Amino acid sequence: MQDQAERLDRGRSKDLLSGAQVLSGQLGKTIQRLRKAYNLSLSELAEQSGVAKSIISQIERNETNPTLATIWRLSQALDVSIERVLATGDEEPFIERTSRADTPILLSEDGKVRLAIIGWIKTVEWLQWYDVSADPGGVLDSDPHQRGSVESLSVIEGVFEVDVNGSVQRARAGETLRYRCDRPHTVRCVGETPGRATMVVIMKAAVME
């Protein structure tokens, strides 16, 4: 009986270790995807979260099991619920719903353009899409994405203007502007009313050569 109990204890310990490794591995991938979605370096995330850069690097490489306090700090810095960070890939439903509270919002420097990250975090390295809302006169300046990247701006409401290296085009509701975004580019809301648009960024990995 004692031998059987010991075998059961060893089995449970093995299952717990295996489960912890799976959770830790998924956690690292999730942290890395979220960090890249915000275009944050390890140093920037460390500064915003209060978690050491070396620890974040180890988490992303699945070399450590972080404490709950560490996971909480990272989730706060990445503006996502801790439940979302801890969810494993195998447990995700085929139909996934994201609440407004779990949708990260990026702001332009003038505070007049808001980008809600509505794209799937698993595709962020090659495909990103956003719900764009802008006040009249709002300006979104963007640095170049990686070489070969293409951006599409589909206007839902208002009037938007895109400037890529001095080449300027405008689009109204129902129209789409598609342009290379591997160089500095600017999106402006030039109408007298607020603007809404959907922005899709296709990174080089998805662009046919």
From TrEMBL:
Care to name a GO molecular-function term for this sequence?
DNA binding
Q: Does the keyword RNA-binding apply?
A: no
Question: Locate the HTH cro/C1-type domain: which residues?
Answer: 31-85
**One GO location term (cellular component):** cytosol
- In the UniProt record, does the keyword Transcription regulation occur? yes
Pfam families (alphabetical): Cupin_2 (PF07883), HTH_3 (PF01381)
Q: What are the alphabetically sorted keywords of the record?
A: DNA-binding, Transcription, Transcription regulation
What is the protein name for this chain? Transcriptional regulator
